[in-house]
Amino acid sequence: MRIELTRDSVAMGDDADAPHTSSLEVPQDASVRQALAAIGVPRAYLATIMSDRATWIARAGDGTALAVVAQQWPEPRLLPAGEGPLARFADPAGTVRLDFEYRQQNDPDAEYERLAQQG
Description:
There is one protein chain. The radius of gyration is 13 Å and the shape is globular. It has one domain (2-106). The mean pLDDT is 89. It has a six-stranded mixed beta sheet, sandwiched between helices. By secondary structure, it is of the alpha+beta class. The longest helix is centred in the last third of the chain and has 11 residues, at 108-118. Helix content is 16%, strand content 27%.
């Protein structure tokens, strides 16, 4: 299954390549967790911040929040919608779009709680 990635910019100097597109292939039965691991978040794809504190929201192409990713965490924390197979977010051609929304240095635990309560 193909995943097409975009992410927000973190500073004016980072805007030159916005929306920072990338893509990769994962097995058709990959879970959201497995896909995020293949992407290498929080390190490989996302911009790192000098303060070592950056918060990101991983969203499916339809805007569904799937996980909170924090630069200071070793791995993403899945939201309820992020549990299960990634393929359910695929378009008719079998491509999944994931966007990483930059939430600056917001407290990732607070972001997780806010999004988990939204359902």
